Amino acid sequence: MNAGQEQVCGTSRIAGCQFSLYVMSDRFVEVILGVLKEVDTSKVWAKTDDIGTCIRGRQSHVFDVTKAIYVKAAQTGLHVSLNGTYSIGCPGDSEGDAYMVEDDVPMNEEAVRGANVRTACQFALYPMGVSNYMDLIYTGCRPAQELGTFSGGVHYASRLDGSADDVFASLYGAFDVVRRQSSHTILTFNLSANSPSARK
Protein backbone atom coordinates (compact mmCIF):
# COMPACT_ATOMS: atom_id res chain seq x y z
CA MET A 1 0.00 0.00 0.00
CA ASN A 2 1.35 3.43 -0.95
CA ALA A 3 1.93 6.10 1.66
CA GLY A 4 -1.22 8.11 2.20
CA GLN A 5 -3.45 5.47 0.61
CA GLU A 6 -6.44 4.85 2.85
CA GLN A 7 -7.08 1.27 3.87
CA VAL A 8 -10.79 0.55 3.62
CA CYS A 9 -12.72 -2.63 4.36
CA GLY A 10 -14.92 -3.58 1.42
CA THR A 11 -18.50 -4.70 1.82
CA SER A 12 -17.85 -8.01 0.09
CA ARG A 13 -17.36 -11.09 2.29
CA ILE A 14 -14.79 -12.79 0.12
CA ALA A 15 -13.24 -15.79 1.83
CA GLY A 16 -9.84 -17.08 0.87
CA CYS A 17 -7.22 -19.67 1.63
CA GLN A 18 -3.49 -19.58 1.02
CA PHE A 19 -2.10 -23.10 1.34
CA SER A 20 0.75 -25.43 0.50
CA LEU A 21 0.43 -29.16 -0.10
CA TYR A 22 3.36 -31.37 0.90
CA VAL A 23 3.71 -34.96 -0.32
CA MET A 24 6.43 -37.02 1.32
CA SER A 25 7.49 -38.87 -1.81
CA ASP A 26 9.80 -38.40 -4.78
CA ARG A 27 6.54 -38.40 -6.79
CA PHE A 28 5.43 -35.15 -5.16
CA VAL A 29 5.31 -33.15 -8.41
CA GLU A 30 3.17 -35.77 -10.13
CA VAL A 31 0.80 -36.06 -7.16
CA ILE A 32 0.39 -32.33 -6.51
CA LEU A 33 -0.16 -31.40 -10.16
CA GLY A 34 -2.51 -34.35 -10.62
CA VAL A 35 -4.63 -33.34 -7.63
CA LEU A 36 -4.81 -29.71 -8.72
CA LYS A 37 -6.04 -30.81 -12.16
CA GLU A 38 -8.57 -33.29 -10.75
CA VAL A 39 -10.28 -30.94 -8.30
CA ASP A 40 -12.99 -28.67 -9.72
CA THR A 41 -11.99 -25.06 -9.02
CA SER A 42 -14.49 -23.46 -11.38
CA LYS A 43 -16.27 -21.53 -8.61
CA VAL A 44 -13.18 -19.96 -7.04
CA TRP A 45 -10.45 -17.57 -8.11
CA ALA A 46 -7.25 -19.60 -8.04
CA LYS A 47 -3.57 -18.96 -8.54
CA THR A 48 -0.63 -21.31 -7.93
CA ASP A 49 3.01 -20.29 -7.75
CA ASP A 50 6.26 -21.92 -6.65
CA ILE A 51 5.31 -21.69 -2.97
CA GLY A 52 1.63 -22.54 -2.80
CA THR A 53 -1.89 -21.91 -4.00
CA CYS A 54 -4.35 -19.13 -3.25
CA ILE A 55 -8.08 -19.62 -3.75
CA ARG A 56 -10.79 -17.01 -3.15
CA GLY A 57 -14.53 -16.74 -3.42
CA ARG A 58 -17.58 -17.80 -1.43
CA GLN A 59 -16.74 -19.44 1.89
CA SER A 60 -18.51 -22.69 0.97
CA HIS A 61 -16.44 -23.13 -2.18
CA VAL A 62 -13.14 -22.22 -0.56
CA PHE A 63 -13.64 -24.99 2.00
CA ASP A 64 -14.96 -27.39 -0.65
CA VAL A 65 -11.85 -26.98 -2.81
CA THR A 66 -9.32 -27.24 0.03
CA LYS A 67 -11.02 -30.34 1.42
CA ALA A 68 -11.05 -32.00 -2.00
CA ILE A 69 -7.37 -31.25 -2.60
CA TYR A 70 -6.41 -32.68 0.78
CA VAL A 71 -8.59 -35.80 0.49
CA LYS A 72 -7.51 -36.66 -3.04
CA ALA A 73 -3.85 -36.28 -2.10
CA ALA A 74 -4.34 -38.42 1.03
CA GLN A 75 -6.12 -41.13 -0.96
CA THR A 76 -2.81 -41.91 -2.67
CA GLY A 77 -1.76 -43.53 0.63
CA LEU A 78 1.30 -41.30 0.81
CA HIS A 79 2.08 -39.20 3.84
CA VAL A 80 0.66 -35.78 3.00
CA SER A 81 0.30 -32.49 4.82
CA LEU A 82 -1.77 -29.44 3.95
CA ASN A 83 -0.73 -26.24 5.68
CA GLY A 84 -2.56 -22.99 5.23
CA THR A 85 -4.61 -20.01 6.32
CA TYR A 86 -8.30 -19.26 5.83
CA SER A 87 -9.32 -15.60 5.95
CA ILE A 88 -12.48 -13.55 5.56
CA GLY A 89 -13.02 -9.80 5.85
CA CYS A 90 -9.47 -8.86 4.93
CA PRO A 91 -9.31 -5.06 4.43
CA GLY A 92 -9.17 -4.16 0.77
CA ASP A 93 -9.93 -7.67 -0.50
CA SER A 94 -11.77 -7.00 -3.75
CA GLU A 95 -10.00 -8.82 -6.60
CA GLY A 96 -12.07 -11.76 -7.78
CA ASP A 97 -15.43 -10.32 -6.69
CA ALA A 98 -17.09 -11.98 -9.68
CA TYR A 99 -16.87 -15.34 -7.93
CA MET A 100 -19.19 -14.07 -5.19
CA VAL A 101 -22.17 -14.45 -7.54
CA GLU A 102 -21.75 -18.23 -7.64
CA ASP A 103 -24.39 -20.35 -5.92
CA ASP A 104 -23.56 -22.41 -2.81
CA VAL A 105 -23.69 -25.83 -4.48
CA PRO A 106 -20.25 -27.43 -3.88
CA MET A 107 -18.51 -28.93 -6.90
CA ASN A 108 -16.36 -31.53 -5.13
CA GLU A 109 -18.17 -32.63 -1.97
CA GLU A 110 -19.99 -35.59 -3.53
CA ALA A 111 -16.73 -36.99 -4.89
CA VAL A 112 -14.85 -36.87 -1.57
CA ARG A 113 -17.56 -37.27 1.08
CA GLY A 114 -17.15 -40.45 3.09
CA ALA A 115 -13.53 -40.99 2.08
CA ASN A 116 -11.75 -43.14 4.62
CA VAL A 117 -9.05 -40.59 5.42
CA ARG A 118 -8.01 -40.42 9.05
CA THR A 119 -6.84 -36.90 9.73
CA ALA A 120 -4.85 -35.11 12.40
CA CYS A 121 -5.05 -31.34 12.55
CA GLN A 122 -3.75 -28.39 14.51
CA PHE A 123 -5.60 -25.12 14.07
CA ALA A 124 -5.65 -21.65 15.58
CA LEU A 125 -8.34 -18.98 15.39
CA TYR A 126 -7.68 -15.25 15.23
CA PRO A 127 -10.76 -12.99 15.54
CA MET A 128 -9.42 -9.56 14.59
CA GLY A 129 -10.55 -6.22 15.96
CA VAL A 130 -12.55 -7.53 18.93
CA SER A 131 -11.76 -7.26 22.62
CA ASN A 132 -13.49 -10.53 23.55
CA TYR A 133 -11.32 -12.63 21.25
CA MET A 134 -10.72 -15.39 23.82
CA ASP A 135 -14.46 -15.89 24.26
CA LEU A 136 -14.82 -16.17 20.48
CA ILE A 137 -11.98 -18.67 20.27
CA TYR A 138 -13.65 -20.87 22.90
CA THR A 139 -16.92 -20.55 20.98
CA GLY A 140 -15.12 -21.58 17.81
CA CYS A 141 -13.99 -24.83 19.44
CA ARG A 142 -17.56 -25.94 20.21
CA PRO A 143 -18.36 -27.41 16.78
CA ALA A 144 -15.33 -29.70 17.11
CA GLN A 145 -16.37 -30.71 20.61
CA GLU A 146 -19.86 -31.54 19.35
CA LEU A 147 -18.44 -33.61 16.48
CA GLY A 148 -16.03 -35.42 18.78
CA THR A 149 -12.89 -34.32 16.94
CA PHE A 150 -11.52 -31.95 19.60
CA SER A 151 -8.44 -33.53 21.19
CA GLY A 152 -7.43 -30.61 23.40
CA GLY A 153 -5.10 -27.68 23.30
CA VAL A 154 -1.45 -27.70 22.35
CA HIS A 155 0.95 -24.77 22.46
CA TYR A 156 -0.49 -21.99 20.25
CA ALA A 157 -3.18 -24.24 18.71
CA SER A 158 -5.94 -26.78 19.24
CA ARG A 159 -5.82 -30.35 18.01
CA LEU A 160 -8.43 -32.26 16.03
CA ASP A 161 -8.50 -35.97 15.20
CA GLY A 162 -11.04 -37.86 13.11
CA SER A 163 -12.22 -38.45 9.58
CA ALA A 164 -11.55 -35.83 6.93
CA ASP A 165 -15.29 -35.17 6.81
CA ASP A 166 -15.52 -34.42 10.53
CA VAL A 167 -12.26 -32.48 10.74
CA PHE A 168 -13.24 -30.19 7.86
CA ALA A 169 -16.73 -29.80 9.33
CA SER A 170 -15.05 -28.76 12.58
CA LEU A 171 -12.83 -26.22 10.82
CA TYR A 172 -15.76 -24.83 8.84
CA GLY A 173 -17.87 -24.60 11.98
CA ALA A 174 -15.15 -22.79 13.90
CA PHE A 175 -14.50 -20.34 11.07
CA ASP A 176 -18.19 -19.72 10.42
CA VAL A 177 -19.25 -19.07 14.01
CA VAL A 178 -16.35 -16.68 14.66
CA ARG A 179 -16.59 -14.72 11.40
CA ARG A 180 -20.19 -13.83 12.26
CA GLN A 181 -18.92 -11.88 15.27
CA SER A 182 -15.57 -10.62 13.94
CA SER A 183 -15.12 -8.31 10.95
CA HIS A 184 -11.86 -10.02 9.99
CA THR A 185 -11.34 -13.67 10.93
CA ILE A 186 -8.25 -15.80 10.33
CA LEU A 187 -7.86 -19.54 10.87
CA THR A 188 -4.51 -21.25 10.44
CA PHE A 189 -4.34 -25.03 10.04
CA ASN A 190 -1.99 -27.93 9.52
CA LEU A 191 -3.53 -31.22 8.34
CA SER A 192 -1.78 -34.57 8.16
CA ALA A 193 -2.73 -37.99 6.80
CA ASN A 194 -0.88 -41.32 6.55
CA SER A 195 1.93 -40.19 8.82
CA PRO A 196 4.23 -43.02 9.95
CA SER A 197 4.32 -41.37 13.39
CA ALA A 198 0.55 -40.97 13.75
CA ARG A 199 -1.11 -41.53 17.11
CA LYS A 200 -2.11 -45.13 17.77
What can you tell me about this protein's structure?
There is one protein chain. The protein is of the alpha+beta class. It is 31% helix and 30% strand. It contains 5 helices and 8 strands, in the order E-H-E-E-H-E-H-E-H-E-E-H-E. The chain has helices at 28-38, 59-74, 109-112, 133-147, 164-179, and strands at residues 15-23, 45-48, 53-57, 80-88, 118-128, 150-154, 157-163, 184-193. It has an 8-stranded antiparallel beta sheet.
Largest sheet, in brief, is: 8 strands, antiparallel
| Number of DSSP-assigned strands | 8
Task: Give the low-confidence spans.
Answer: 1-11
Helical content stands at 25-40%
Shape: globular
Order of helices and strands: EHEEHEHEHEEHE
Number of contiguous helices: 5
Strand order of the largest sheet: 2-3-1-4-8-5-7-6
Name the beta content range: 25-35%
**Ends apart, CA distance between termini:** 49 Å
Rounded to the nearest angstrom, the radius of gyration is: 17 Å
The overall average pLDDT, rounded, is: 91
User: Pairing-aware structural class of the strands and helices?
Assistant: alpha+beta
**Oligomer state of the chains in this structure:** single chain
